[in-house]
């Protein structure tokens, strides 16, 4: 075949909602994968230009660099409160918060719970890597039993430190929550399922059906002291048994999602 007769087909391209910029995340970190999934969904649903991102303190504090949409930086843990304010004054906007486990499940526990209680029509993407990533690798509410961190050097002890907090199960019990799902980013198959959950969460908001949250099991090779590939196996073998994957609540499943 000559060069003139060669036909090239584009099978993948950078989403328009994803900025073309260098990353500040550590090598092997899955935040970039989560960002791409969100950007693809924003493009596919045609909502990029009316979307507002709320990024709190944590590894995701610079998330506004990676999305071609307007963004607000919230105080540590307060992203659901800020997102609530934005959505109430601009109900035509699509508002989502992007939070880590140290942020959402610790200092921001009250904000996320009461946003769900009120049934705020916002979407929350919850990155769970079982550790405080940005501030030095301390134990998070989601750290596994026996997991060694800079603040639990001998491993998490249930007697003195309690058990891992399962936020999705907690939020799913709240009447105001419409859609709650936990997915993982450790393999291509799970990444595809994660994208479907993210899309469903945004569809819930588009259709004014209330609060939605998607938890994504992720890694932290730096603070876990692992190579990236090893960290993916750790998610599959250690995290998934503690944090089972699937839709924990889908209150609109019985009558379906309306077209967007």
Topology:
Layout: H1 31-45, E1 51-55, E2 70-73, H2 79-89, E3 94-100, H3 101-107, H4 109-117, E4 123-128, H5 158-161, H6 167-172, E5 177-184, H7 188-206, E6 211-217, H8 221-224, H9 228-242, E7 246-250
Helix pairs in contact: 1-7, 3-4
> Helix/strand-derived class?
alpha/beta
Let me know the average pLDDT. Answer: 94
Q: What letter string, H or E per element, gives the SSE order?
A: HEEHEHHEHHEHEHHE
The separation of the N and C termini measures 44 Å
- Domain module count: 1
How many separate helices? 9
CATH superfamily: Thiamin diphosphate (ThDP)-binding fold, Pyr/PP domains
Query: What name does the CATH topology carry?
Result: Rossmann fold
- The second-level CATH architecture is 3-Layer(aba) Sandwich
State the assembly state of the protein chains.
single chain
Could you write a compact summary of the structure shown?
The protein is an alpha/beta fold. The protein is built from 9 helices and 7 strands; from the N terminus they run H-E-E-H-E-H-H-E-H-H-E-H-E-H-H-E.
What does this structure look like?
- The protein has 260 residues and is α/β, with parallel strands linked by helices.
- It has a single domain (24-250), classed as Rossmann fold (3-Layer(aba) Sandwich), CATH 3.40.50.970.
- The chain has nine helices and seven strands; from the N terminus they run αββαβααβααβαβααβ.
- It has helices at residues 31-45, 79-89, 101-107, 109-117, 158-161, 167-172, 188-206, 221-224, 228-242, and strands at 51-55, 70-73, 94-100, 123-128, 177-184, 211-217, 246-250.
- A seven-stranded mixed beta sheet has the order 2-1-3-4-6-5-7, with helices on both faces.
